[in-house]
Amino acid sequence: MDKRPPSKPYDYLLGILSSVVLLGHTVLLGVFLYVFILLKWALPGKGRDFGDWGVHYIAFHWLDGILWWIEHIYRPKWQLNGLSEGNPKGWYLITANHQSWVDIFVLYNLYHGKVPFLKFFIKDELKYIPIVGQAWKALDFPFMKRYSKSFLKKHPERAGDDLKETQEACEKFSRMPTSVMNFLEGTRFTKEKHAAQKSQYKHLLRPKAGGLAFAMQALGDKFDTLTNVTIVYPGGVPNFWDCLCGRLGTIVVRCEEVPIPAAYSQGSYQDDRELRVQIQNWVSDIWLNKDHQITQVLHEYETKNKSNESGVPLDI
């Protein structure tokens, strides 16, 4: 993959300005957010429903502001393929490869306002982030606890607890249209993690099918397809600071709807070994195809830039 273009003084100024704007935008709306969170947790019945509506309303408009800034100030070059129109009153199960925090804003840019508010599987420790963590909790995002092998050796009775908690979180979504987003790799891709895993994929970590399986079984009658999103940054993967500085470049996104076999929403993923193997093989096939797509996109980008004598990166 090509290296990112060198930084310019203007980039740092934009990064500082973006940080101030993001912080001010978050704190301002955070005040109102906490009011609705208190209403949601303190009041019964319709009062709780009003608080829940307010939390979603604030979160929606917080994202409106962030996405406006990204689109009009940073002006990334989008190359989209396969993106459907969406239905705000439908249920969606979505997955994507994960390389950077920027992926989250990419996905919200694709689906914000077109489908129900995206709810991500989030690491449990992130719920302690000020304002944002409390917002995720109030929005009923599913928090995932990952127990280490050493912990499970000492506490074997806790095996499977993380998946049970995932299922309980997903069952809440049956009451209203929801979009459940799961990064199957469980963490951001790095060369070090890739080497440690000895992943069979060139550009991806190994997928973890458990969370996806529990979502399908908790809401099986709601999902007909899995929306599989492949995100590629052919000029180099931007980190969060790159994003603040507007160094996003070209973002290639390919979407496909993968039919979910009806049998996958039945039975028990944890107890039925045959079903577990079937789902894992299905996910592995999806991941293999995703890996090929990433290779193809990067090859097209590299080929066009090798033939470009000006030295200025070209779009693909």
TrEMBL record:
Keywords: Acyltransferase, Membrane, Transferase, Transmembrane, Transmembrane helix. InterPro entries: Plipid/glycerol_acylTrfase (IPR002123). It comes from Bermanella marisrubri. It holds the Pfam family Acyltransferase. The lineage of its organism: Bacteria, Pseudomonadati, Pseudomonadota, Gammaproteobacteria, Oceanospirillales. Residues 92-234 form the Phospholipid/glycerol acyltransferase domain. GO terms for molecular function: acyltransferase activity. SMART domains: PlsC. This is Phospholipid/glycerol acyltransferase. The chain crosses the membrane at residues 12-38.
